[in-house]
Design a protein that fits this description.
- The protein is an all-alpha fold and 52 residues long.
- The protein contains two helices and no strands.
- Helix 1 (9-22) packs antiparallel against helix 2 (32-45).
Amino acid sequence: MSNKTPMTPQAAARIQSSTANQNGGTVPKGSFAAKAQSAAAKNSGNGKQGGK
């Protein structure tokens, strides 16, 4: 059984920051960090976030 929690922009930012630190300041295209950022953007635009 999996618990599907939507990706938040804050979580995506932490993932992207960590990936950039490990790769000399860049985030490789197609990486998990890039996919997380994309998912967060999609989630924040369709009401899945409890935002304002």
